[in-house]
Amino acid sequence: MTDNYAKLEKLGEGTYGVVYKAKDRTTGRIVALKKIRLEDGEEGIPPTSIREISLLKEANRNENIVKLLDIVSQERKLYLVFEFLTMDLRKFIKEIPKENGMESLTMQKFMYQLVDGTMYLHMRRIFHRDLKPQNLLIDSQGDLKVADFGLARAAGIPLKPYTHEVVTLWYRAPEILLGSFHYAFAIDMWSIGCDSEIEQLFMVFEVLGTPDEETWPGVTKFPDYNPNFPRWKPQKLRDFVPSLDSLGLDLLQKLFTYDTIRRISAKRALSHPYFNRWKSLKNFKR
């Protein structure tokens, strides 16, 4: 490992390992090293790591998904080598002056790139299951890429029960919050629409209205549904995100659709007129 890469600094630490900024000694390229924790007494590479590597290799061809460059396996150590990106979306947003907000074209670009990367995953039957600003990285050219596939998994046919202990709470779709073990790619689309204002199920209900069988067929069958939930009427999304134009609000409404069958897919979202201005400028630059 030390023959090929020189660690420069520690970037972060999570449940599954430590991430370092490093330099490729051969090419001089700056990369990100993800050191996977191997438990004592564990034989071989952990199944979660094998799954992550497999899904990353499957998704490696899309420009809006972080690139896996190399895998280095040593005794009791496993490193995943990624392209290095300068910051995540959470940090990017924090650095924007509050009085200005994010420029509308930048917002369209990031959203388009996020949906494009997500559509690529969904077309290959991959759930990300943890889309949030910390897992969306920004490169030096100002482009967004989907990262961190630690909770991702490939969907089988037919869909089987999955754990509902996925997706950071603020970005969790209501079907998961209500205890469903059967969910589909729609959970990623809900996460795309989320921001840090929606922290828990009742806060969702307060904004979008408390769901019932008319607005969401089958909702009363979820394990954690309670017929005594407080009854809220839906509010206007414009009051919560006044910076969005009418097209942006329309897309947000389609992302925040309770009924998973009616919730917009990544493919349909990519064709939404909200992105027309960004797509015209993108084609012009080409």
Overview of the structural elements:
By secondary structure, the protein is of the alpha+beta class. 29% of the residues lie in helices and 17% in strands. Strand 2 and strand 3 form a beta hairpin. The protein starts with a strand and ends with a helix. ATP binds at residue 34. It comes from Acaulospora morrowiae. Keywords: ATP-binding, Kinase, Nucleotide-binding, Serine/threonine-protein kinase, Transferase. Residues 5-275 form the Protein kinase domain. Belongs to the protein kinase superfamily. CMGC Ser/Thr protein kinase family. CDC2/CDKX subfamily.
Write the topology of this structure.
Layout: E1 5-13, E2 17-24, E3 30-36, H1 47-58, E4 68-74, E5 77-83, E6 87-88, H2 89-94, H3 104-123, E7 126-127, E8 136-138, E9 144-146, E10 153-154, H4 174-177, H5 186-193, H6 201-208, H7 246-255, H8 266-270, H9 276-285
Antiparallel strand pairs: 1-2, 2-3, 3-5, 4-5, 6-8, 7-10, 8-9
Enzyme class: transferase
Family: Belongs to the protein kinase superfamily. CMGC Ser/Thr protein kinase family. CDC2/CDKX subfamily.
Binding site for ATP: 34
Structural class: alpha+beta
Largest sheet: 5 strands, antiparallel
Mean pLDDT: 84
Poorly predicted tracts of residues: none
What amount of the residues lies in strands? Answer: 15-25%
Separation of the first and last Cα atoms: 40 Å
One letter per element, helices H and strands E, the order comes to EEEHEEEHHEEEEHHHHHH
Helix content: 25-40%
